[in-house]
Amino acid sequence: MNNEMPICDFGLHAGEPYTKLPASFLNWMVEINHDKSQLAKQELMRREDAVFAACANAKNS
Fold this sequence. Notes:
Structural class: mainly alpha
Distance between the termini: 29 Å
Order of helices and strands: HH
Largest sheet: none
Number of helices: 2
Oligomer: single chain
């Protein structure tokens, strides 16, 4: 597993890790098929997985 956090290198959020970017910005990247849209998709999926895991843990508690 790669522990290196990708950093946004353009626009208003330049210098911020993808884990800190607003979902609206990530969705925009995907919608316009930005060169780095794959990084945005990965981060959105990571967040979705975290929500599902939290819900499953809460249900099992």
